[in-house]
Write a structure and sequence with these properties.
It is a single chain. The chain has 8 helices and 7 strands. Strands 3-2-1-4-5-6-7 form a 7-stranded parallel β-sheet, sandwiched between helices. It is globular and about 50 Å long. By secondary structure, the protein is an alpha/beta fold. The protein has one domain: NAD(P)-binding Rossmann-like Domain (Rossmann fold, 3-Layer(aba) Sandwich), CATH 3.40.50.720. β5, α5 and β6 form a beta-alpha-beta unit.
Length: 254
């Protein structure tokens, strides 16, 4: 049931073509937002925007690879040109990379993971904040991971990238708090997505192991992560900034 958590807000969602991003698009619209969806796969973006509009929502999209600064800038520009402003952003785009021991990890994997997961957030933050500053308000949520708070085996570039997202979140929150911009992060535990589906397919038994380490004993639905992001983007928590919220079934408590 909608609570109009994001009523009237213009929200940019990156990595919006599947998984947590697509779940966020649906939930944010249900909560009253107008959304701009950014991702690399235009066919999926177009289908999702059509679905949202058929349900009465305000939605548009920008094809963008957030690792490319010009693409991140264009996504923000689409929001401003279409709706006149940008109120909020969920920087969700990310990739997992290979699960390989550190000493065997290739430069290519490291570079690709860091470009998308870190440079992508960096690019988006710069243009989102620039669009929000003239209005003296804005909320941003970056998607980190429990791997940004703890270590997991055989995923060093991913762990490094998600720790970096936490650092960027705290740096931006500190720098722009007095200008009315709040920046927080969610740190999902094991969540059903293309990244985890790929990891599970290539690593039999990994899902069962991950669930066994989580007090709730299960994998999260993308909608559960989207719900946490929606609350952080809303006006319900105005004194919360620079915080990383684990959405992990209690994993980091272990």
């Amino acid at each position: 049931m909608s609570s109009d958590l994001l009523s009237g807000k213009v929200v940019l969602i990156t990595g919006a073509s599947s998984g947590i991003g697509a779940a966020a698009a649906r939930l944010f619209c249900d909560e009253g937002a107008s959304v701009v969806l950014a991702a690399r796969r235009e066919d999926r973006l177009d289908a999702l925007v059509r679905e949202l509009r058929d349900n009465g929502a305000e939605a548009t999209y920008a094809v963008a690879d957030v690792a490319v600064a010009e693409d991140a800038a264009r996504a923000v520009d689409v929001a401003v040109r279409t709706y006149g402003r940008l109120d909020a952003a969920f920087n969700n785009a990310g990739i997992g990379g290979d699960r390989t021991p550190l000493h065997l990890m290739s430069d290519e994997v490291y570079d690709t993971v860091m470009d998308t997961n870190v440079r992508g957030v960096w690019n988006c933050l710069r243009y989102e904040i620039a669009a929000m500053l003239p209005h003296g308000a804005g909320t941003i949520v970056n998607n980190s991971s429990v791997a940004g708070l703890i270590a997991i085996p055989a995923a060093a570039p991913y762990i490094a990238s998600k720790h970096a997202v936490v650092g960027l979140t705290r740096a931006a929150a500190d720098e722009y708090a007095r200008q009315g911009i709040r920046v927080n992060a969610v740190a999902p535990g094991t969540t059903r997505s293309e990244i985890t589906a790929d990891w599970f397919a290539r690593n039999p038994g990994l899902e069962d192991m991950a669930n066994s380490l989580t007090p709730q004993g299960r994998t999260a639905a993308p909608e559960e992560i989207a719900a946490a992001a929606a609350w952080l983007l809303s006006d319900r928590c105005p004194f919360l900034t620079g915080t990383v919220v684990p959405v992990d079934g209690g994993l980091v408590n272990q």
